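Writing this down once: the sequence line spells out the residues, with the fold written below as integer tokens. This is how one looks:
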Amino acid sequence: MSLKSIDIEVFGRCIRVNCPDKNSSDLYYIANILNERLEELKGKTGVSNIEQLIFITALNLCYELEVEKQKSMHCVKHLKSRMMILNEMMNSALPKE
């Protein structure tokens, strides 16, 4: 997988990053989402310090990611439980040899 050096703009600052060739369009898309979040936070809070906005946004993203991880883990546990119940039902329904 070859890396490509691309320039993205985040909140008015140009940042050069390396990413796989096939992911460059995704990176531009994500940078746009980040810019939108930063602008939204700036509008809501009135904070204009870029560093502070980035840290708050990073904390919010980490929190959201953790919440989604917890939801995912809960779903996996639920599915495993349901699969075990289904397996037990199938085993009891099948004739014993």
Q: What stands out?
A: The domain at 5-93 is CATH 3.30.160.880 (Double Stranded RNA Binding Domain). The chain has one domain: 5-93. The chain has a mean pLDDT of 93.
